[in-house]
Known about the structure:
Layout: H1 6-24, H2 27-49, H3 51-75, H4 77-95
Amino acid sequence: MAVDVTVPVVAAGLVGGFAAARYSGRRELGGIVLAAAGGWSTRQWASTRGPAVAGGLLATYLGAFGLSHPLAKKVGAWPAVGIVTAVTAATTAALTR
């Protein structure tokens, strides 16, 4: 079965948002990347899977962003982003099959 198109978008939003903020020095730029990917994905989920799944996946996406911050203090910034991105992408793949 094919992977839902939102899986790479979610991963790009988390990784790209962090990279944009880190390398530009502008946190709001990272927020724009994160919000754009999350907004687009949520619209896709709502239209293909319904509002309950869309809400759950959006909560997972935003929760991953939030959890990456305290996790980064324990394992480092890039490893934390990698961990939350992998978990979020796997959850998205599982719930959009």
